[in-house]
Specification:
2 domains; globular; single chain; about 15% strand
């Protein structure tokens, strides 16, 4: 039986819940998300697995240990690129969107339309928003770096206040996004 290890970490933005399996980090719950929902999501995506509460049981996952260290460094402004292995579960479309989100550099933003074009579905901005909302590994898979076409803060599972804090931490510009300054962000990593 597969084991999914999870732990709670207190950070300057509030309590996060982290979970990982043998392949990588698979879930982060943002502050305010109920632990029951977090655990239900793990059961839904991993089926018949052992949920191992590291805080209660003692045994620790090296992936969660690394994730905790990197998240704390990121939130202190000392880390710009995560190196944690990821185990993302979702539809093919969701995984394409999440992979594009990983290409948005620290301190930069892209629009939902930019991501839609990058995944080959130029008219699918709303579907990109839906996939971003279902991102199981926020912060590490930076859905907070996606903004409205005019640079406005729209939609974030942790709330717009948290999205603003994360963008402010990265000093990401939120002025009007144009095709010239956002598509280049996605293409420079290719």
């Amino acid at each position: 039986m597969k084991a999914i290890y999870y732990r709670r970490i207190d950070t300057k933005i509030g309590r996060l819940l982290l979970a990982s399996g043998e392949k990588g980090l698979c879930r982060i719950a943002l502050p305010g998300e109920e632990e029951k929902r977090f655990l239900d999501d793990l059961k839904k995506f991993y089926g018949n697995c052992l949920l191992w509460d590291e805080d209660a049981e003692g045994e620790k996952s090296p992936i969660n240990r690394k994730a905790q260290k990197e998240l704390l460094l990121y939130l202190d402004g000392k880390l710009k690129q995560f190196s944690i292995p990821l185990d993302m579960r979702g539809t093919d479309f969701q995984k394409k969107v999440w992979c594009e989100l990983l290409k948005i550099p620290y301190g930069k933003v892209a629009t939902y339309g930019d991501i839609a074009r990058a995944v080959g579905k130029p008219g699918a901005s709303r579907a990109v928003g839906g996939a971003s909302h279902k991102n199981p590994i926020p912060i590490v898979v930076p859905c907070h770096r996606v903004v409205g076409a005019n640079g406005s803060l729209v939609g974030y599972g942790g709330g717009l206040e948290l999205k603003k804090k994360l963008l402010d931490l990265e000093s990401a510009p939120r002025k009007a996004c144009t095709k010239e300054n956002t598509v280049m962000i996605l293409k420079q990593e290719e």
